[in-house]
Write a structure and sequence with these properties.
With about 425 residues, this protein is of the alpha/beta class. The protein has three domains: about 150 residues, NAD(P)-binding Rossmann-like Domain (Rossmann fold); about 140 residues, Dihydrodipicolinate Reductase, domain 2; about 80 residues, ACT domain (Alpha-Beta Plaits), CATH 3.30.70. The chain is about 35% helix and about 30% strand. The strands form two sheets. Strands 7, 8, 9, 10, 11, 12, 13, 14, 15, 16, 17 and 18 form a twelve-stranded mixed β-sheet that branches. It has a six-stranded parallel β-sheet with strand order 3-2-1-4-5-6, sandwiched between helices. The mean pLDDT is about 95. It binds NADP nicotinamide-adenine-dinucleotide phosphate (NAP) and L-homoserine. The site of L-homoserine has 11 residues, from helix 7.
């Protein structure tokens, strides 16, 4: 086989960057045997070149000047695993202008500036690959783009944030405290540099925006996604979920109908026998429904050093082959050729778990039921429990209804003198409607 050495520059040597370096070093010969390309790490960009690193790295390889990568004519592939949006975009555009193909794990950037980056890359004749940006080690972007290309995709739904799944699993199974288990997820390398992005749902929102754009061929950005995180989930909600036969998961949900799409991220009650209920810890799973293939499910490790590095390296191997065969940049990466309306959250339909703290008096439940009835909200089941001498907790699950009807009813219910507080509202998916 004709031998070729391709030099790469890596931006970032944290959790994912370290994994990428380990794989390149350990699998150099194996990759060479497969594709006839010898991958060589020429430069690694970090913030602090003096920091102690987890694996040995020659001091000459480390740099804190990104132009040592973007302007080096020998470097053909720029692997971006440092995160960040504006500065990182400038660095990547500089790399693209200087003829480098890009492999990135950066969903923040791709969910906001994907279109611009694809266009610049196409003009420059280089590749942009971003498999690691969604669901860590699970192949999902290439399957959606290529393997399912002939399908009209109508639904993409799944657990796409490892950190929150790890937290919810541990809160459910071990009764762990939210903050303690978040710290564990950070120590394990699952969380973003600022874990607010994970726990408030923005990381998952970026990922569902990317998946919806690819799956539905229409541009969906972060701003189009309705986002709620897991910080309002309490041990009471988890206990009620168990009692009622559900588990709580943070889901990314995107659905398409002719002319319109919806995209949302929020906690969900799912029946405990639902396939997604068994996806625990930092594992992710994505359900995709296409008109030809039917229902498919992609499952695997959704975060962490080696799974994410595995996804990066899959892209690096593809780009290296394209460079070797002189086909890099020949294919336009953006497939958003349609323009579909984005639905508002009020238009979306679901079932709801609603927990209310009320005065323990006769007629309270009837007055609440009457408000729901007047707003067209039908109630499927109710649980009522005493809370102390004078208070009670009412938990109800509605039948499927438009969000706006539920919000209108809750606004009235919140104003009733017998209702102390609407403690939580969580959507229910996969129930009996
Ligand atoms: P990390 O552990 O925080 O590492 C970030 C690395 O980038 C560090 O080496 C840091 O340098 C360097 N860096 C950051 N900003 C820089 C700048 N402005 N200039 C130069 N170097 C800079 O992050 P990570 O967890 O590996 O995540 C990296 C990317 O992968 C993010 O986009 C993340 O969303 C994505 N991702 C992560 C996972 C995961 O499981 N961790 C999974 C999928 C995707 P120093 O070492 O000197 O501080
Ligand atoms: N912080 C992300 C997560 C990393 O927890 O899923 C993988 O994208």
């Amino acid at each position: 086989m004709e031998m070729k050495t391709i030099k790469v520059g890596i931006m970032g040597m944290g959790t994912v960057g370290t994994g990428v370096m380990k794989i390149i070093e350990a699998q150099r010969e194996y990759i060479y045997n497969k594709i006839g390309v010898n991958l060589e790490i020429k430069k690694v960009l970090v913030r602090d070149v003096t920091k102690e690193r987890n694996i040995p790295v020659h001091p000459e390889v480390l740099t804190d000047n990104y132009e040592d990568i973007t302007k080096d004519p020998e470097i053909k592939i720029c692997i971006e695993v440092m995160g960040g949006v504006d500065t990182t975009k400038d660095m990547l555009l500089d790399a693209i202008e200087n003829g480098k193909s890009i492999v990135t794990a950066n969903k923040d950037l791709m969910a906001i500036s994907g279109k611009e980056i694809f266009e610049k890359a196409y003009q420059a004749g280089v590749d942009v690959k971003f498999e690691a940006s969604v669901a860590g080690g699970i192949p999902i972007i290439r399957p959606l783009k290529d393997c399912l290309a002939a399908n009209r995709v109508s639904e993409i739904m799944g657990i796409i944030n490892g950190t929150t799944n790890y937290i919810l699993t541990n809160m459910t199974e071990k009764g762990s405290n939210f903050q303690d288990v978040l710290r564990e997820a950070q120590d394990l390398g699952y969380a973003e540099a600022d874990p607010t992005a994970d726990i408030e749902g923005f990381d998952a929102a970026r990922k569902i925006a990317i998946l919806a754009s690819i799956g539905f061929n229409t541009r969906v950005t972060l701003n189009d996604v309705h986002v709620e995180g897991i910080t309002k989930i309490t041990s009471q909600d988890i206990a009620y979920a168990k009692e009622l036969g559900f588990v709580i998961k943070l889901l990314g949900i995107a659905k398409a109908e002719p002319g319109e799409v919806e995209a949302r991220v929020h906690p969900v009650f799912i029946p405990k026998n639902h396939p997604l209920a068994a996806v625990n810890d930092a594992f992710n799973a994505i359900y995709v429904k296409g008109d030809a293939v039917g229902e498919t499910m992609f499952y695997g490790p959704g975060a962490g050093e080696m799974p994410t590095a595995s996804a990066i390296m899959g892209d690096v191997v593809e780009v290296a082959q394209n460079i070797k065969t002189e086909t890099a940049g020949k294919r336009y990466n953006c497939t958003c050729f349609e323009k579909r309306r984005i639905k508002t959250i009020g238009e979306m339909e679901a079932q709801y778990y609603i927990r209310l703290t009320v005065k323990d008096q006769p007629g309270v439940l009837a007055s609440i039921a009457s408000v729901f009835g007047n707003q067209g909200v039908s109630i499927g089941s109710v649980v009522q429990k005493r809370r102390g001498e004078e208070m009670a907790e009412i938990v109800l699950i509605t039948h499927g209804i438009k969000e706006q009807n539920v919000q209108d009813a809750l606004q009235i219910i919140q104003g009733l003198s017998t209702v102390e507080v609407v403690s939580n509202v969580i959507r229910v998916e996969g129930g009996n409607n």
